[in-house]
Each structure stands twice: as structure tokens, then as C-alpha cells.
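Entry 14. Ran structure prediction on the chain below.
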Amino acid sequence: MPPVTAPPAPVPYLPQRGERYRLVAPNAPTAPRIVRDFVATVLWASGHPGLVDDARLCVSEVVSNAYCHTASPQVRVEVTVNHRQVTVYVTDDEPGRLPVPQPARTPSPEDGADENGRGLLLVDALAARWGTTAYGDRSPHSKTVWFTLAAAGR
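Output, C-alpha cells:
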């Protein structure tokens, strides 16, 4: 696999107009599946069946990152839908450092099949745009990772 360079720093949170759906889930091993199903249901019901697979994969990666890399007790998910696009926001209560995609690398024999760090590369490849936002100015208390998927032909 050829090396991939990381894109520039993600852009800040972009509010979007449209219908909003929210879910709060415990930050547990079951959270990625529950959130995937929630997002898929919203997209099917709102007339975006063509975005379901990409949205399920992207939200699963972002929620899995929150589970694996934070001690946040819960994740908050908001899905904003309009006729042109869908934006999914995943917020946790541990700002830490904001995530950035890691360049892909070929695993060495010592690494085995190292799969870490590839989730945001998938989000970057599938989303029309994505980004992160920390809340709390000098003393951040939470962060959001968001991504937007555009409807076909938009």
C-alpha cells in the first residue's frame, strides 16, 4: 500500500440547517453498534438511503475512537439532515488532543496486522468534509468530531 499523507488540520465545527436527531449513549463496547443503527435509521427515514453505508462506517469509527481513547462516561450524537447533506456530530467529555488521521504505513512483521490509526483516514476518504472542535476555551471540557456526507448529485 503506498504511503498516504495526512491532510491539513481539520476545519472547525460547521452548524447546519435541517432536522436534528439526538442520542446519548454510554461510552461502552456496545456504543458503536447502537449509534450505527441510530444513524442508519435516521438516514433511511429521512430519504438518504444512499448515504447509509458510508455514514454507518464513519460514525462507527468516530464512536470507537471515543470508546478506545477517552474515559468519557457517555457519547452524545447529533445527526442533522437536510435535502442536500447529512452531518453527524459525536461529542465526548474528554477533550485531550483533537484527533487527526495518521498516515497509512505498511505494517512490519513485528507489528503484525496493526490496524490502529486508520479510522479517521476512512472518514477523510468518505466524507465531503470533517473536523473537530474543543469546547471550553483555555480549559476544554469536551470535544466534537463531526463529518458531512453529501447526497448524490449535490
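Residues 52-69 form the longest helix (18 residues). Will compare against last week's run tomorrow.
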